[in-house]
Design brief:
Elements (H helix, E strand, L loop, with lengths): L4 H19 L4 E2 L1 H10 L3 H8 L4 H18 L20 E2 L1 H9 L10 H11 L5 H9 L3 H9 L1
Parallel strand pairs: 1-2
Helix pairs in contact: 1-2, 2-4, 2-6, 4-7, 6-8
């Protein structure tokens, strides 16, 4: 069976997102990990996000700040990442609810042009109203409406 370009692209994004989830010691791959994967690449979508101030380091820092803020809100003081150690993961993390919802709700690319899927995923993630990503983007001061406009252009 020959893989379609869309399937190959989705697999590559999924693998990169899973690697981001492992790096952040997450149990599941969620929308934040997909967005991290998209910002880490040198694709047109990654370049657009970076030009809008949403590069990998900025997003990573904002997600860490969001996590610390959420923990403090629950009365738990965050622990420095270097203090946390664990047995290396032997399996990939599962797919989180936000990724399943993202893929379910994402508009299908209307063309087979390289990058169309990345654009649709980025638009879907940046369009989320609640959750970790919107809170982290607010912390980073990212103008989501502006970024969405640039992605759709």
């Amino acid at each position: 069976m020959v893989d379609s370009p869309l399937a190959v692209q989705l697999h590559a994004i999924g693998m990169a997102a899973a690697a981001e989830a492992v790096r952040r010691r997450a149990r599941a791959v969620d929308a934040e990990h997909v967005l991290l994967a998209l910002t880490a690449g040198s694709s047109p979508v990654g370049s657009t996000l970076s030009a809008a101030g949403l590069d990998h380091d900025t997003l990573d820092g904002a997600l860490s700040s969001e996590r610390a803020r959420s923990l403090r809100g629950a009365g738990v003081e965050p622990v420095a990442p270097e203090v946390l150690t664990s047995t290396p993961r032997v399996s990939r993390p599962g797919w989180g609810t936000s990724v399943r919802e993202l893929i379910h709700n994402a508009e299908r690319p209307t063309t087979r042009v390289s990058g169309a899927l990345e654009t649709e995923l980025a638009v879907g993630i940046l369009s989320l109203k609640v959750g970790t990503v919107p809170r982290a983007l607010a912390i980073a001061g990212i103008d989501r409406a502006r970024v969405l406009t640039e992605l759709r252009a």
